[in-house]
Amino acid sequence: MSEVVFTRGSGWMPRVVREDGVLKLTLGAGADANHEPRTFTFPIGEEHLAVIREDLGRHLLLWSAVLPLCDAAGTRGRLDEDAAVALLDPVLLAAPAEVDAYFRRVPWDKGRLVAHGAGIDLLEQGRVCAAMRTATEASDANRAQEYRAERRRAERGTVLGPLDAAVLRYTGQYVHGATVPRRLPDAVEPALLPEVMRVVATAERACAGLRIGRDPRRGRRGTDKRDWERMAAAVESAVRRAHPELAADAVRSLGFLMCSEAVDRARSTPLEAYEEAADGRGALSFTDDKGAERTWRPGGPRTAAVAFWEFVEDRVASDNEVFTIEDEERGEGVQVHFYADSIARITTVREGRGGADPEYRVEYNLVDGMSGYRRLVSAFVRGGCAALDGLGTWMSDHAEFERARRRRGGR
Fold first, then answer.
1. Which of 25, 141, 178, 394 has a CA that sits 20 to 30 A from residue 287's CA?
2. How far apart are alpha carbons 31 and 27 in whole angstroms?
3. From CA 321, how far away is CA 236, in angstroms rounded?
4. Which residues contact 303 (CB under 8 A, 6 or more apart)?
5. What is the pTM of this model?
6. How far from the centroid of its chain's Cα atoms is residue 81's Cα?
7. Kind and range of the H or E element at 203?
8. CA distance readout (Å), 48 to 54, 87, 188, 230, 411
């Protein structure tokens, strides 16, 4: 039978229970193999309960010292109860100077104390008891996240000025640089916001006229990686020139913001925006490396190029990167090889008659990114293989083509 003897407002803080007449401290920490919270319990004395009741700071210090033992137990191990009990007197009953000295010898969870309002400068100085004078029952997870982010930056030697921090807060990147950026003017101190907006305006001017296109090779939501790199480089270069005092983290966050917004625009832009409207062709068939087939005919709602790229978006995968456009009436086609950044044009030289196989001429060309694929596919659907003359270097010798591909790969 378990009876709750003492608990504080935060549901995660350790609470005191009585089980079969024995006082115990119980807390949730970590998770089991099924990702369910684990509960750990160990005995305490009446004198420990009295301190926990009266002194929030000591309660929090004990929690921070017990958590590493819970982490050590892992997903299924037992709490080292002797080690937990050994924490009680030094943390709860010792004089402040002795507690400070003790915390210099044992592991403890500093982030937990930061989240509950402990003074960060005092914690860094090892004055843990003094740091707890500002502690609160309520937890501020964002404060702890910012503290950890600052520690990570300090470990790699990055020092942020007020404007750097303000830019990172504006883009939502202060805590974690991998978070999708947003525009958060309310997160910036009002006195710094005008200066932040001037920096943002520099980034906006740098990417005016640039866009990130859709990339069907990456599926329906795919966008062009090269376009991203080009835009990020333009933004970061302009911001560095105009604001040389900014830290690299702040500069990168602005490139990330501009590119993320451009990607959002690209994903809502129809494929028609990237293709010329004219076709001038008869029926075409599209196939992939898995045997799927789709037929396009003139007069439909999509141009041939758009219909082909929609087919690619629907079918492309890591094991399906070869797609073909065939004009059976003219006896010609192109085959794109996304895995090799290349394309082949195939022309029927002689029809098969009397049981003989037809004879084809196959020529290969290296392709430079998604824009190169778009240009070649659009040219083919408008004018067939002849329209591809002059667009790159076509090689009929496959060995020569492979040598060229290896040379480009070694650049």
1. 394
2. 12
3. 33
4. 272, 275, 276, 277, 278, 279, 381
5. 0.75
6. 40
7. helix 193-206
8. 10, 11, 44, 62, 69
CA distance 174 to 249: 9
Give dist(CA 80, CA 252) in Å, integer.
Answer: 45
Q: Is 157 exposed, middle or buried (0-12, 13-18, 19+ CB in 10 A)?
A: exposed
Low-confidence residues of the chain: pLDDT under 50:
411
Residue 394: what pLDDT? Answer: 94
Which one, of 207, 191, 305, lies nearest residue 263 by Cα? 207
CA–CA dist 87, 48 (Å, integer): 11
DSSP-assigned letters across all residues of 93-128: IS-HHHHHHHHTTS---HHHHHHTT--HHHHHTT-H
Residues 334, 301, 371: CA angle, nearest 5 degrees: 40
- On the 0-12 / 13-18 / 19+ scale of CB atoms within 10 A, 43 is middle
Helix axes 369-383, 225-242, angle to 10 degrees: 130
**What does the radius of gyration of the chain's CA atoms come to, in whole angstroms?**
32
Q: At a CB cut-off of 8 Å and minimum separation 6, what does 129 contact?
A: 57, 61, 96, 99, 100
Which residues, at least 6 apart from 9, have a Cβ–Cβ distance to it below 8 Å? 137, 138
- Spatial CA neighbour of 321 closest among 335, 300, 332, 302: 335
CB-based contacts of 38, cutoff 8 Å, min separation 6: 28, 29, 30, 31, 32, 70, 73, 75
Question: Tens of pLDDT along 210-269?
Answer: 999 999 999 988 999 999 999 999 999 999 999 999 999 999 999 999 999 999 999 988
The sheet that has 37-43: what strands, in order across it?
2-6, 15-19, 22-31, 37-43
Instruction: Mark 309-334 as b/e (b = at least 16 C-beta within 10 Å).
Output: bbbbbebbeeeebbbbbbbeeebbbb
Tokens 């309660």 -> residue: 59
Length of the chain: 411
